[in-house]
């Protein structure tokens, strides 16, 4: 894997975790 693929993978995982957290804790992401 190239560095770009690794970085983009971390970004995608981070966005998914953020969206899931926002769904379960909407009051924290107002």
Protein architecture, described:
The chain crosses the membrane at residues 6-24. Pfam families: Potass_KdpF. InterPro entries: KdpF (IPR011726). One of its GO terms (molecular function) is P-type potassium transmembrane transporter activity. This is K+-transporting ATPase KdpF subunit. This protein is mostly helical and 30 residues long. The chain has one domain (1-30). Helices cover 73% and strands 0% of the residues. The chain has 1 helix and no strands. The protein has one helix at 3-24. The longest helix has 22 residues, at 3-24. The chain is rod-shaped. The N and C termini lie far apart (37 Å). The mean pLDDT is 91.
Biggest beta sheet summary: none
Structural class: mainly alpha
How many alpha or pi helices? 1
SSE run: H
Overall body shape: rod-shaped
Unreliable spans: none
N- to C-terminal distance: 37 Å
Mean pLDDT: 91
Q: Which SSEs are present, and which pair or pack?
A:
Elements: H1 3-24
Task: Explain briefly what this protein structure is.
By secondary structure, the chain is mainly alpha-helical. The protein has one helix at 3-24. The chain contains one helix and no strands.
Keywords:
30 residues, single chain, mainly alpha, 73% helix
